[in-house]
Amino acid sequence: MNLLVYAVCFGVGLLFAIVSAFLGHLFGGHDAHVDIGTGGHAEAGFQDTGMPGLSPFSPTTITAFITAFGGLGLIFSKIEATRNPWISAPLSIVGALIIAVGGGVAVRDGLSQGG
């Protein structure tokens, strides 16, 4: 049963990432560059660079967490020492948090450097 949960999480996360990448490529949305000049006001929802920040609850970080949780759960459930769901699930959660936060930080730093 736990393999099914991990496989569904991995499959849904991977499918969402692929569909998002495909639709993002088709519809773009990043061709127009406009200087908003927010000056970093918090109520504007922008960082001091005038670029929108990456929320910890954005689709990117949620997808990264779900996909990583499923993938790590599948891996941990195949290892004899971590086969028990009481061991594999917490390890998968911690690993998925590390991956999602690391990915979010990398995207945020890439956005803040303009690349």
Q: What features would you describe in this structure?
A:
Helix content is 64%, strand content 0%. It has one domain (2-28, 50-112). It is flat. It is mostly helical. Residues 40-46 have low confidence and may be disordered.
Overview features:
115 residues; mainly alpha; single chain; 3 helices
Q: Distance N terminus to C terminus?
A: 43 Å
- The tally of helices reads 3
Care to count the β-strands? 0
**Protein structure class:** mainly alpha
Strand proportion: under 5%
User: What share of the residues lie within helices?
Assistant: 55-70%
What is the fold's blueprint, element by element?
Blueprint: H1 2-27, H2 59-78, H3 85-112
Quick take:
The chain has 115 residues and is mainly alpha-helical. It contains three helices and no strands. It is flat, with a radius of gyration of 18 Å.
